Amino acid sequence: MGFFRKKEKKMEKLIISKSLDENMKRLKERLKDCDDIVYKEFRVGVEQNLRFLLVYVDGMSSRDMLNDAVLNALMVHAREVPPEAKEPGEGLYKLVRYGGLPASELADKDNLEDAILAILIGDAVLFIDTTEKCIIIGAKGWPMRGVSEPNTEALIRGPRDGFTETFRVNTALVRRRIRDSRLKLKQLRLGKRSFTDIGVMYIEDIVSPELLEEVFRRISTIDIDAIIESGYIEQLIEDNCMSPFPQISVTERPDEVAASLYEGRVAILVDNSPFALIVPTTLNSLFQSPEDYYDRWYVASILRFIRYFASILSLVLPASYIAVTSFHPGILPDKLVISMAAAREGIPFPVVIETFIMEVTFELLREAGLRLPVPIGSAIGIVGGIVIGSAAVEAGIVSPIMVIIVAITAISSFSIPNYSLSVGFRMLRFFLMILAGVLGLYGIMLGVLLILSHLVKLKSFGIPYMSPYVSFEGSDFKDTIVRVPTFLMARRPILLARNRIRLRNNRNLINRPEQESERDDKE
Amino acid sequence: MIRNNDIVSPYQIAMITIMTVISVEVFSIAADTADILGTDGWLVIVILGIINIFTAMVIVRLNSIFPGKTIAEYSQIIIGTVPGKVLTSFFAIYLIIVIAYVTRVFTEVVKMFLLFRTPTEVIMLSLILVSTYIVRGGVECVARINELIFPILFIPFTIVMLFGLPNMDFSNLRPILQTPPGKVLASIPRMIFSFGGIELALYYIGFMKEPKKAYKSLIISVLFILLFFVMVIVFCIAAFGAKSTTKAIWPLVMYIRGISLPGLFIERLDGVILSLWVLTVFTTIVTVFFTASYSISKVAGTREQKQYVLPLVIIIYYLALQPGSLAELYEWGNAIFPYAVSAFMYVVPVMLLIIAGLRKLEVKQNEGN
Fold this sequence. Notes:
Chain A is α+β, with helices and mostly antiparallel strands. Helix content of chain A is 49%, strand content 12%. The N terminus of chain A is likely disordered.
């Protein structure tokens, strides 16, 4: 370790020398065995006495752009058009830098280290003989996926664009929705080897300064070799890494990011990842879908209610089945108890084991189906359906009621809009099943109390995870289980936003068309 | 680093008070009042409620002299360091006994209606251990859990209570107001503990930004408790009549047991409601537990209260196992609580307020600001 660190220190501070050959030698030494790097040496001028060197990574820079803006311009056009630089050196450099390159993005560097980084990022670097500086030409142009609809967050109503793996495209998609000079994008590079672009986006006069400071503070503590995906950052800056609940929400949708920014949240975009991070996150916001705001309010409210109901069901249904059948059959109607007992006749396992068998089978099936290509996945579905549905029952291993319970639980857990939240609920479901097997309904309540206690303790960047349920504020309740009509949501959430007024209620203007027309007449 | 702010909001104060006061005594309150006053049992609760509105005002008045300080801190200012610490220690002992009592009563209820064969020790210890998790989180978490559980508990409970309406015969409530006033007044000391728990506001108001705002919260919460108790008593007596109510140990559980919802998925509700009732017992234990460990930390002079929580579990567990039977447990409760509750709810705040007034501590505080 110490050896490498010493070597790294030695390699720093490479300055650009006047001699082009010397520079090329240093570059080639540094980028030894990197066979994808292109060194294009060429001569310019009528006498062909000015030597230039263009370096870029093959495949990461746009070859068309370099041909047009650099090679064509310098090698062909510069020959015909005055002024011509007679003297090599500073004059030539300035001429090329400001007059010779028809490219939109140019920068000067006098450090070879920076130049190498620029090359590796995908820019092209132009060295000129007899000058101690180089020109960085923004020529990034690698193959990228087009903007397409996110698979995991599909909506019925809403925009169809989703983030891609290219940072710049993603920031543009957000910027297109917030044409406000107060939308800020702070960029930094993280990762000692990967030099990944990270963008922190926020709206200056809405976001609370403490939150912003905390976000930057946490990001600045990251010291890692590479950031491959935004998940790395998520796990390095989250509050409680032991919690089964996600404390940072992840989205592929630019409209969701924009809406969160307007609420006073902070978004973190990471290069090479189509998933943006949004902080802080509350449990309530994980149950929201962007569609809730595009659809009319009662549609959204009903859907919200269904989601909350489904999540509770997916958490406690198997556990309740265990508790009721093995501890308190008395709370069910007699006929139901008799039919359940008849269905369980001849089943060799106790209810707890039976439930575990079925739940585990279902989890295996889900995991198997998830990674497979669609045609095979459907085959898995058929196999699983037969195994779970009829074969297990016919073989006398599980009771038919158990199949119904597993099916309802499965459907409910798919209704939770956030994937990592639903995984958390899956884990807690097994925890509650064990408790129900030991202590019945009382055990379930103790488990629920533990979960509630944990949720109440949890914070995401200083915001209580259970807010607004635990920080009573009337106006924040307008966007919880019920989503009130849009014209009533006049204020931004109190815990997040500084500048709280969001819209003006226009109901009274709409409902009185006579007055409006009178005013028009007067005009 | 964003730290816990340790601030309790006025709304949370109300929730804490309601959730603390309403705990295990709800099961037996109808039987107790019917035993003393027959059909006029609700009257004593109304009188006590009105008295306690004044108690609440005394408590808030006392706390607003020392904003940002709890009784464990300002008692040392009012009556001196050592007497203050002694008072706080007594408070802590009382609170620990309360937790042990509540845990044990609830365990007996659970054993009788939910888990017949599970050992008492398992039920008790699991409940206390679950509550330690949140107590270690500090006052902010305690306040939040109270706030969160309140709607989860009371909305289903009220709905279920209304399902029992067909079983009721309101003529059972007669005769109304036939008890001589002397007898009513004499019965007040026996029921005084039913409002026990308001004194915890002496601690929790100390965590508020503006203690004056607690007037409204506390008065509203006392009124809520009053109405809730009266509802339970009236419903139970209307359902069973005063005599049968007296004979039942826990008339409320009997009442819920009597509700049947034919045709629905769940026919008998007592199991469901009792498991919901774990929530309110839990919040009571948590709220009291925090003040107990907090008092000890103030007596010992430490900054955190976390480290006292787990040792206290052992003491509570030991105390809760002492009564041999339910009858013995209630005997102990009736011997201790009327005196302890009246001491800490009435005598201590009033005395402290008088001494603070005599020493003109209020003026000093204002000059300091």
